[in-house]
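Ticket #4471: structure export looks truncated?
Reporter: QA, pipeline team
Priority: medium

Steps to reproduce: submit the single chain below to the structure queue and open the exported record.
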Amino acid sequence: MTTSSASEHPPTTEQATTDGQPVEARNENRSQRPQSEAFRSFITSGWGPRAATGTTRAPSADYAAVRRARLSARFPGARLVIPAGGLKTRSNDTDYRFRAHSAFAHLTGTGTELEPDSVLVLHPVSEPDGAGGTTEGHEAVLYVRPLAGRDTEEFYADSRYGEFWVGARPSLDDVEELTGIRAEHVDGLRDALAKDVGTGGVQVLVVTDADEAVEDLVDEVRASEGVVEESAAKKEQHTDEALVEAVSELRLVKDEHEVQQMRDAVDATIDGFEQVVRELSAAAAHPRGERVVETTFDAHARLAGNAVGYETIAASGEHATTLHWITNDGQVRDGDLLLLDAGVEVESLYTADVTRTLPVDGTFTEVQRRVYQAVLDAADAAFAVAIPGARFRDVHAAAMEVIAARLEEWGLLPDGVSAADSLAPEGQYHRRWMVHGTSHHLGIDVHDCAQARRELYLDGVLEPGMVFTIEPGLYFKADDLTVPEEYRGIGVRIEDDVLVTADGNENLSAALPRRPDDVEAWMADLR
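Actual output as written to the record:
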């Protein structure tokens, strides 16, 4: 990691235990950085001009402006604070790679381009409406930590932010050119947030759980400016919770740019699945073959996009009956099924989420095919109802009708229980073998729009531009004594990414074979 790469020699005991040195400062002991004025003068001089960055306006910038305008209309007169988030510590003083909070990325149109600690603020403004009155809106400002000069100590000494350590950050001009949003130094954030705040003044709202330091700053501003409880009506409308809800609901319907990002993510993901199939023989020969599958896909995701959109599930055999199996330390054996649930996150941070269950040796057994076909039929039933005007919950209900019917047909429901009995709210026996839902919204988060209100999500009416998964499954654990032995240890999930269109839907991942004969033929061609 970049924050620990300069340890050429370990510090001596004397250096590491200097009397009076604060514990938090001791990580710097390893750097052995000179402290002389001669060194400071020398390292901050003699540098040529920086090359032009070549920054241009992002294709997403205009779309992001429309998104901000929609958010602005929901909170007239309030100051809205949307942090990108900061670096997250992996261990000691090493950090994970930075990924911006999804609401920030969605509203700025940036993906991997902006730096940690950036904050988008929508400042309330009033403008003449042309009829003698005014309209309320917002001015967007990005507060960022810009590129520091080479004459500063940060340039060479700051292992977390310094150019010498982690590379050059964009300048304020770069940020403005990229986003079309006015950029200011983050050092001015506190004063900007406090402007006109107080009893009867501007209310400040923040997206919570994005950046603890920014939340603390907002709380400090509220307290120092003597903010008191607002009226019940205003409080209900203008709260941090309402802002979190709003930025999530903004993503329920994707715009044209977002749909293209989803197509790109899905296409890259399909390529990754093909690479996995090509490596199945190597996986079967390795004592931890699931790791071969995982690293094959993850390496592809890092090369084709930003990274994986979530931890890859590479579950073979019995592990396929564990819904979120990410340990991926098991063998991949001929005769078993491999459940691969994976998605590429592209540079814009939009991700695919696709699952295929593959016979490791390329051919389904009779019972594997039986279970697989039931899951596929459930998925097809869900696709049939995923059309404009239906409700989101209808998609799951359609899949469950098929699952319950098949379990009844196979004699797996309790004695005397029919599929209709099981589908009743007081029944639900079939859910023993599929405890998860059939669908979730998908986009800049793998579980996108998660803070949306129930009436807009689960009970929401499907509209063109919505993107979500369809992913029924059946999971028979190896020690499940309620099913015949032939089913035990079989886990099957089939997951596709669906776009609701004006006249129905489109399976964005349809290029990845779904039907068992097609899966076998596809695998044979690749191996």
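Status: closed, not a bug. The export was complete when the record was re-opened. Leaving a note from the reviewer for reference: The longest helix spans residues 256-278.
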